[in-house]
Write the structure tokens for this entry.
Amino acid sequence: MDLLRFFCGALLAALFSGSLTAAAPTAAARTAPPTFAQREPGGDGVVFDTRFAGARLDECRADAPGEYTVVVRPENRPINDSAWFAFKVSAATARTITVRLQVEGGAMRYLPKISSDGLAWFPLPAEAYARGANAGEGILLLEVGPAPLWIAAQEMVSTERLTAWVRTLERLPYVTRGEFGRTHLGQPLQKLEIGTGAKHYVVVFGRQHPPETTGSLALMRFVETVAGNSDLARSFRREFSVLVVPLINPDGVDRGHWRHNVGGVDTNRDWGRFTQPETRAVGDEVTALAQSARLWLHLDFHSTKTDVFYTQPDTKPAKPAGFTKAWLEALQERLPAYTVKRSSTTTPTLTTSHNWAHATFGIPAITYEIGDDTDRALLQQIAGAAAEEMMKKLLALKAAEQP
Ligand SMILES: [Zn+2]
């Protein structure tokens, strides 16, 4: 009875505050894991499997011999239209099957990728993929057999892979790894600190949004370049340190979410509000760092339809002044065949990490967006060049500040 009264009260309070229409986090908004582990919908030896971290497949059924419909749903709603899917399929004997993939409440944003081991991925070619009857449907022609075939929206960059990457970088003498905070599901968040003790920091965030694996690929290359063996990187690390939080939403990544954390919230609309354990822990970490060191720059890696840098307008004061413009111009000069796109029409009221970092610390704060379909070799080239040009600009700006 008390519980009922509590819920009624909470509902009324929510109605009056208008928070039912906002992405208000409540315990009730917690998301659920994928609905099944393994199914053989036709009884014909063709098996759909979600028993791995990052899987997302909510339903499957057999329509006819060799033809199946599978359905994915978002973790909760409302939600950004970025339908993630990931599952394995195998068959008792080698055969070609047709899979009708349906997205509930969204469109097929991603061209399906396949893999035989979860590590090497290949986009499904035009011969094996067609758009369905509507934007929320794709038709996949898959060659399956006893060895499972992985199908996913993008090449997977799992928590396990990012952790292995962090553990490898940690072996470098000027890199330390740490854990801080806890996610909704109790996982520790991981951080890397790169440098030789300089109290001048660049802060790098990654993977607030689970499907945005091109953002992770760019972050890794960017950080590897700063942690590399070049003369430039060595000079940079004498003057600057880098704090990297490569995976802010590991729960969402593990559960195959489209966008949110397990609290059912878009963490990149929670900066400054800090209603979620992940944003609160990362916010506290960066705020504590700013007490004992000077922050120079904040970068947050994401993915969207095209490559674009979301920045503050040049007219907004930031210290160091002029970094963003100089950096992106240098990058453009470096890559003449590529167009560096910048958007500074951001909404300052949006509670994104870059608005928070700029408002709180007065530093240039940039969301680094990689296209979903950006050529992966080009992605590596751009991220490496962006890291090098950032190091050059920051070194020059710091030298210019010396008396
Ligand atoms: Zn994003």
